[in-house]
Amino acid sequence: MCNKSCNCISDILNVIYLLQKNAVTSDDCIDSCGRPTLGQFACLYYNTRPVILYTCNSNGQVAWSAPTTRVAEPEAFSTVFRIEKIDGCCATFRVLIANEDGTYTGTDSFFTINLECICAIRCLGDTLVENI
Predict the structure, then answer these.
(1) Where are the beta strands (DSSP E) in 13-87?
(2) Is the pTM of this model over 0.85?
(3) How far apart are CA 61 and CA 59, in angstroms?
(4) Beta strands in 6-128 (DSSP E)
(5) Structural domain for 78, as ranges
(6) Looking at the 3D structure of the chain, how many domains does it have?
């Protein structure tokens, strides 16, 4: 059953989209006394806030899954995504593959979903995603 309003989910995804869009790398990251930022990990660079989307059915919340490739065989699915575009209540996501080291790899598999059909979102830790 879909919601009648997507404002809450849409607002969160807009923030995530803007954070990702404005992420920049610093090729001249200086790891010395003269570096311009504080913190042990001041030179780390993240470009993605992975999310898990949940739909609601009669059994409760269910994590949305999508194929990791455009081809039908072999069919592998993931429940972790990166927001790529948002327009009102419609959002396009890239499917991510979880790696053994806790990072993610971007795939060439995308889907667009009506956010009115999403009842919950779970944000995972910010990370650097290759292949985006």
Answers:
(1) 51-57, 60-63, 66-67, 77-78, 81-87
(2) no
(3) 7
(4) 51-57, 60-63, 66-67, 77-78, 81-87, 90-98, 104-114, 120-123
(5) 7-21+46-130
(6) 1
Question: 53 near 113, Cβ under 8 Å?
Answer: yes
Answer whether residue 52 is part of any domain: yes
Which positions ≥6 away from 98 have C-beta within 8 Å? 78, 80, 104
Per residue in 63-107, pLDDT (tens digit) is: 999 999 877 667 789 999 999 999 999 999 999 999 998 889 999
Residue 111 placed within a domain? yes
- Report pLDDT for 23: 81
**According to the model, what pLDDT value does residue 72 have?**
64
- How many other C-beta atoms lie within 10 A of the C-beta of residue 44? 11
Tell me the average pLDDT of the chain.
84
CA dist 108 → 53, 78, 81, 92 (Å): 19, 13, 12, 12
Question: Would 56 be classed as within a structural domain?
Answer: yes
Does residue 33 sit within a domain? Answer: no
d(CA 67, CA 109): 7
Backbone angles phi, psi at 72, to 5 degrees: -75, -30
Q: Residue 38 is encoded by which pair of tokens?
A: 């504080």
